[in-house]
Amino acid sequence: MTPTISHQALADLVGGQLLQGDPNGAISGINSLAEAQEGEVSFLGNPKYAPLTQTTKATAILVAPDFKDDLPGKALIQVANPTLAFDQAVKYFGPPERPFVPGVHPTAVVAGSAQFDRNKVQVGPHAVIEEDVVIGDGSTIHAGAFIGLGARLGQSCIIHSNAVIKERSVLGNRVVIHSCSVIGTDGFGYQTVDGRHLKIDQVGIVQIDDDVEVGSCTTIDRARFGKTHVGAGTKIDNLVQLGHNVSTGRGCIIVSQTGISGSTQLGDYVVMGGQVGVAGHLKIGNQVTFLAKSGVTKDTPAAGAYTGYPARPLIEGRRMLMYPSRVPELTRRIQDLEKKLAELAEKLV
């Protein structure tokens, strides 16, 4: 049965104020402004989509305090942060959360020296937990996941299906690793001797602090020695590569297809857009943002936004990105000037 909620109850649920609309009107679902139908609630989290509030079929809309448009016939609920508040509606109407069912599935392979409370940890089918692993209460190891020799997992971690936590990796509390990611693979270290690439031993670890989430198919290499370190609260997207001995500060955001080369250090709250490439042994300061496809080739200590290759401060970087598009025009102008100069030269002879 589809749940319903009144406009007023919805406002209370999301911590907002019903600005207009029938308090007893019914809401039975959620949707985007573009796709919403009558009886559904949506939200305006980005001013870019403000024109859609005039055409949407949504019955109710969550709006920010600065929203001033007149929308006759709509229930408007004012909230401090529409994007965040809408998440409460998603939880109300969305599918129920997967239940936590402690215990070890019969097909899981668990070493005798692994330490965890089977009444407080969930281990799914065909998961492998090697010797000397320690897992905190409330953690879930989903089907097919691998936890390597001597790894340490804190409380309430979630290791999704087919994720790999390699030997001696250390995860804090509430760490989430999504499917097919590999934590603690060897760093990419070789020395060329007499035409052969000789492997350099990678004997360090990966340490991931509390409240970090790592998307699918991401790889975080173990350190050559010491540790590769991901700071608390950092969120890493799918398809990201962190090289050996990389360290991030707290609360960083690293978006898909970004690659960070070995021994680079990130400060707190660094943001890297999609496909950012970072050279090795660099130092990035606090609250630095690199826009998508930036190429970072040198230390960047000052907070602010950067773009381009090599990455420059935002305005300068955008100007440099604009120049290549003007090459055909500038070429034609040069050719015209050369032609005129040639004509003048003939007249002077």
Overview of the structural elements:
The chain is α/β, with parallel strands linked by helices. The protein has two domains: 5-93, 3-Layer(aba) Sandwich (Udp-n-acetylmuramoylalanyl-d-glutamate--2,6- Diaminopimelate Ligase, Chain: A, domain 1); 103-321, Hexapeptide repeat proteins (UDP N-Acetylglucosamine Acyltransferase, domain 1), CATH 2.160.10. It is 14% helix and 28% strand. It is built from four helices and 38 strands. The strands form seven sheets. A twelve-stranded mixed beta sheet has the order 8-10-13-16-19-24-27-29-32-35-37-38, covered by helices on one side. A ten-stranded parallel beta sheet has the order 9-11-14-17-20-25-28-30-33-36, with no helix packed on it. The radius of gyration is 27 Å and the shape is flat. The model has no long low-confidence stretch (mean pLDDT 95).
Give the topology.
Blueprint: E1 5-6, H1 7-13, E2 17-20, E3 26-27, E4 29-30, E5 40-43, E6 60-63, E7 75-78, H2 82-93, E8 103-104, E9 109-110, E10 122-123, E11 128-129, E12 134-135, E13 140-141, E14 146-147, E15 152-153, E16 158-159, E17 164-165, E18 170-171, E19 176-177, E20 182-185, E21 190-193, E22 196-199, E23 205-208, E24 213-214, E25 219-221, E26 227-230, E27 235-236, E28 241-242, E29 253-254, E30 259-260, E31 265-266, E32 271-272, E33 277-278, E34 283-284, E35 288-290, E36 295-296, E37 304-307, E38 312-313, H3 314-322, H4 327-348
Parallel strand pairs: 4-5, 5-6, 6-7, 8-10, 9-11, 10-13, 11-14, 12-15, 13-16, 14-17, 15-18, 16-19, 17-20, 18-23, 19-24, 20-25, 23-26, 24-27, 25-28, 27-29, 28-30, 29-32, 30-33, 31-34, 32-35, 33-36, 35-37
Antiparallel strand pairs: 1-3, 2-7, 21-22, 37-38
